[in-house]
Amino acid sequence: MKNTDIVLNHKLFNEKLNKIENDEETRIFCKHDFSHLMDVARICYILSLEQNLKIDKDLIYVTALLHDLGRADEIDTGINHNILSQNIANEILQDLDFDEKSKSRIINAIKNHRTDADNPDKFVEIFYKADKLSRMCFRCKARKQCNWSDEKKNDTVIY
């Protein structure tokens, strides 16, 4: 996964992720650390395989690695992290070897990872789902304080 490896070693990726992990060190709710990014990637890949979507594994992993990077600047700017993440992703994507269609799919999934609105690209749908399924609510110590409705909370392991 050539592009995934480039992201993992990319200066901007590591700067943003380190800031997020530092900022969220004492966070009691779900964290947006490297483990979360990898969980989203792996679940999304499983969903793609199960649905026989034939989505490139490298594309899935790169999207997962980039989708929450805007959290590094969300509080400082007041701009939603999905918007900021798109901007960061666009910058990092310049250094990757994806065609324009793939880059567009990545940005579209990042842009829409907080909404389950209908989208013609099935990748956006499974990416949203993977992001939500990555949360282990049943083991969360902050479950009672969480804003998520009980219907949204994951009560068991699915993936």
Q: Can you offer a commentary on this structure?
A:
It is a single chain. By secondary structure, this protein is mainly alpha-helical. α3 (34-50) crosses α8 (122-133) and α5 crosses α6. The protein has a single domain (2-145), classed as Hypothetical protein af1432 (Orthogonal Bundle). 57% of the residues lie in helices and 0% in strands.
Q: State the name of the first-level CATH class.
A: Mainly Alpha
Overall number of domains: 1
Task: Return residue spans where pLDDT drops below 50 for at least 5 consecutive residues.
Answer: none
Order of helices and strands: HHHHHHHH
* Rg, Cα atoms, Å: 15 Å
Count of helical segments?
A: 8
Q: Which secondary-structure class do the elements indicate?
A: mainly alpha
How would you sum up the global shape? Answer: globular
Quick structural gist:
The protein is mainly alpha-helical and 159 residues long.
